[in-house]
Amino acid sequence: MKKLISFFVFAFIIFSSTQSAQSAVTIIDLQGDKDGFGVGCPIASGLHYLDYGYYWADYREPGDPDFTDYWYEDDKSWTHTYDLMGLVPVSATLEIFVAGLADKAEWNGEVFVNGVSVGTILPDTSANDLTRILTFNIPVGLLINPDGVTVDVNNDLDGYTIDYSQLTIQAIPAPGALALCGIGTAMLGWLRKKRTL
Ligand SMILES: [Ca+2]
Ligand SMILES: [Ca+2]
Ligand SMILES: [Ca+2]
Fold first, then answer.
1. Which of 1, 13, 44, 132 is the most buried (most CB within 10 A)?
2. What gap in Å lies between CA 127 and CA 46, rounded to an integer?
3. Minimum-distance ligand to the CA of 166?
4. SS3 43
5. How many whole angstroms from 86 Cα to the centroid of ligand 3?
6. pLDDT confidence of 67, banded at 50, 70, 90?
7. How many angstroms is it from 128 CA to the middle of ligand 1?
8. CA–centroid distance, residue 69 to ligand 1 (Å)
9. Are 43 and 34 in contact (CB under 8 A)?
10. Residues with CB under 5 A from ligand 3 (ion)
């Protein structure tokens, strides 16, 4: 009985330390490349996409998805895929680097993930080609892998461009897996300890 109690105390200590040491894992899916729309515009808000030049030039490279590095004026949709590796997502964010989007007072935009709105793009009238980093919190209940993202521009003449879209997920092991891991580790440690006695 004493041995059994000591095992469970040991298991509890190991389980607690396993839980406290367990930090979230970051899972990232990047669609497009971070090359400043193909023209080298730094990844920051408030800069101009082009000081001068030809907006409609095709800055896409081989391998670029067709929603990036090109000047569009219609809705765009793309897909994020990822491997949760059996982990449980606890938070997620979507970051999209855009230029020239929603730049007139009467224009706006909206971003949907799997058909659910995750945020409105408010108008910014300062310049047609001003860059903006759009960040949205994604409720983990919306994650279904593959996830469909749609940028809805509420004006067909609102020219804009997208550099990249990045989905970042924080995930942790399932509680059951943690418990099993803790008990398994405890059992191994207890058996080793018993052998050395
Ligand atoms: Ca590119
Ligand atoms: Ca525009
Ligand atoms: Ca790009």
1. 132
2. 9
3. 3
4. coil
5. 30
6. very high
7. 21
8. 6
9. yes
10. 32-33, 35, 68-69, 163
CB atoms within 10 A of CB 131: 23
pLDDT for residue 173 is more than 70: yes
How close is the Cα of 92 to the center of ligand 2, in Å? 28
Cα of 25 vs centre of ligand 3, distance in Å, is 26
Please tell me the distance between residue 38's alpha carbon and the centre of ligand 1 in angstroms. 5
Correct CATH for 24-171 of 3.90.180.10, 1.20.120.450, 2.60.120.230, 3.40.50.620: 2.60.120.230
Residue 51 CB neighbour total at 10 angstroms: 7
SS3 126: coil
Interval between CA 150 and ligand 1 midpoint (Å): 20
For residue range 70-100, list pLDDT tens digits in order. 999 999 999 999 999 999 999 999 999 999 9
Cα–Cα nearest to 92, from 80, 103, 77: 80
